[in-house]
Amino acid sequence: MGLLVLLALWQALALAGGGYLLAGPLGVASWLAAHGGLILRALSVTLANAAWGFLLGNLAAILLAAIALVWPRLLNLVGGLALVVFCLPLVATGPILRVLMGPGEGPQVVLAALAVYYTTLIPLLAGLRAAPQVWFDLIRSYGRGRWSELAHVRARAALPYLLAGLQISAPAAVLGAMVGEFTGAERGLGVLTIRFTRDLDVPALWGVAGIAAAASIVPYAALGWLGARIADDKPPVILSPPRIVRGSPFRKAAGTALLVGAVLVLWWGGMEVLGLNRFFAKRPDDLAEALLWAPDAARTRQVLWAATVQTLIWALPGYLAGLAAGAGLAILLSLLPWLGSLMTPLAVALRSIPIVTTAPLVVVLTGRGAAGTMTLVALMVFFPTFVACQHGLRQAPGPILDLFRSHAAGRLARLLHLRIPAMLPALFASARMAVPAAILAVTVVEWLATGRGLGSLMALSASLSDYDMLWLTVAVVTVMAALFHAAVSAAERRVLAAFAPEQTHA
Amino acid sequence: MAPDDHPPAAIVCAGLVKRFDNGMTAVDGIDLTLAGGRTTALLGPSGCGKSTLLRMIAGLEEPSIGGITIAGQPPAALCRQGSLSVAFQDPCLLPWLTLRQNIALGRKLARLPADPATVDRLIDLVGLGGFQQMRPAALSGGMRQRAAIARALATRPRVLLLDEPFGALDALTRRQLAQDLPPLWRHAGATTVLVTHSVDEAVMLADRIVVLSPRPARVLADIPVPLDWPRRPDLSEAPAFRRLVQTALAALVRGGERSQAVAAQ
């Protein structure tokens, strides 16, 4: 019903706007009908890449979770490494993978895998620990050990979490594959998108975006349906931040140092073991040289710094606007329930669309400047935040709501004193998870369209084969994302300690 | 339910002290010998450390000082043999299993062969016949607790540990189970330890009451309960029953006053 209204509105807008930027559904449908073969071929390539990435990424997530389960001491390190890899800018990782793996579908598959594994790993880690302590006491009281815990409790308790993770990773796999196709593949929906952006072929762009959206929504919905049939217990929304390090400041510093050390060793060791050429497979010491004591180091630093500032100036306001809009709309709709029941299914559907794949469209619509970039970043942050905040607002405990009602407290009082505090954990959790997403969005737009910032620097370095600079941008973006993530996590822990103490023990 | 081949298992606690990492002392010097096949109630105020004592007997906590043997073995050995069962305060049913599967889980975890007849009989006995295929979420708190007791009994344990077994039950069910359950564990020859803060329940269910002080738990009084089995519900009106309740209550009150005096100093 809501969909029909939306379609009608869309067509009306397109007719009013003269169809220059906005192609109506009729126009898009006729374009798709005329180019069915082309679309189908591209779609099958993208879907195959996404499916392989989905498979490999989720297997990797399950393997990592198993490692953390067997050796609990490694949990912090595994979680930390997983986060660092998750913070890698997919955009720049694409071209690096391209030179490492050569032509073909390899980079797209790897990017799809990189895009999915974290969103499966985190719920899985939480799910494997989601059982109350008494269940483990029960197992132990029969003299059984870890394997029985796993067989009778953990595996089953984690199932809904795993299914939730798999569901989220279906659209993410499409996103990863398409980002790979944006940055130098030969076939696929991403390649078509780039071509139509150059030609400013508006109906074609809308058509491809629509197909990409459908390719994301359909598996998302299918996995949701399947998940509901397999496990009828819904997992709670996972809010507790992954504990990278806990304990005294000294132990935290030691844990962070260990993590940085592990990243450097794995990076350097991996390259050496694979025997990759230093010309394009840079080691940490190559980057240190380029940044610190090479003859043109000062210039490198200057270029890198300027691009970083440029990226931050656009990404930060978009990120904050997305958070504010998501939380704000959720609050507004909680005051207007009739509107909420209309909007929520739509938002849930839209959330599953990988917004980044529509980047070229947004750029065409809003221009190649600040507005387009910020809009895309904001959109990227908005949908997950909105859905999570709506969920959070409903988390206000029933008995306390009754207490408020018994004092005849109005809707506003309940909102201020009960619902908004109950929403804060969800808001902060989405703020944390949105950091890499926002960075992905801004670098994609910069790469494709704006010609400024780190994304553009990545594109330039890739086309000039300036691998020092390319690797440096990857390193800078990763460190930046990890630091932001850590900062939001720190704020989040304080909020959780105050408003949801039960979440901080998980 | 036929008695096991094993002789009744006596539980010996020697010089038990439990101090937690945060410095809190929960149990402070307990020496007890619990005769095999008998039922002992650990009676004490809330938070006194009686559950910690029970958890040590179950092998779930290691004592800081002292030790526990059951039939001459450490508790963990009995756990591994599947001859020790705990019914926790939280009924602790797995939400994805049906009631029947939850009760059968006890035997599965103890690596005993499946015994559908016993499981069904226990389900009827705790008054849950007809609910076998329900999930725990669909059951009331009292029904879940009865299921947990049935699961504990399903392995025919030599040692049965009950932590506030009737805590969530209504008065009527409580009365019914107090009537039905003791014959089960007594007939099986199980050495039973139950933790409770209800004086009447302790007198009704046990052969012996060990009254514990407020935290840290020490033995305040050791009261034999020489009432005949089977005990009928109207026994609670009998003068002998009331006298035992008065004795236990007096010990509890003295302990409370003493600990308040200590705290005031």
CATH class type of the domain at 11-78 and 158-181 and 188-264 in chain B = Alpha Beta
CATH class category of the largest domain in chain A: Mainly Alpha
Overall morphology of chain A: globular
CATH topology of the largest domain in chain A: MetI-like fold
Number of helices of chain B: 8
Query: Could you give the distance between the termini of chain B?
Result: 54 Å
Please state the average pLDDT score of chain B: 86
- CATH topology of the domain at 11-78 and 158-181 and 188-264 in chain B: the name is Rossmann fold
Oligomer: heterodimer
Structural class of chain A: mainly alpha
| Class of secondary structure makeup of chain B | alpha/beta
Fraction of residues in helix of chain B: 25-40%
The low-confidence runs of chain B, each spanning 5 or more residues with pLDDT under 50, are none
Number of strands of chain B: 9
Arithmetic mean of pLDDT of chain A: 79
Overall tally of domains of chain A: 3
- Please give the number of β-strands of chain A: 0
Instruction: Give the helices and strands of chain B as they follow along the chain.
Output: EEEHEHEHHHEHEHEEH
Described by strand count, sense and barrel closure, the largest sheet of chain B is:
6 strands, mixed
Distance between the termini of chain A: 41 Å
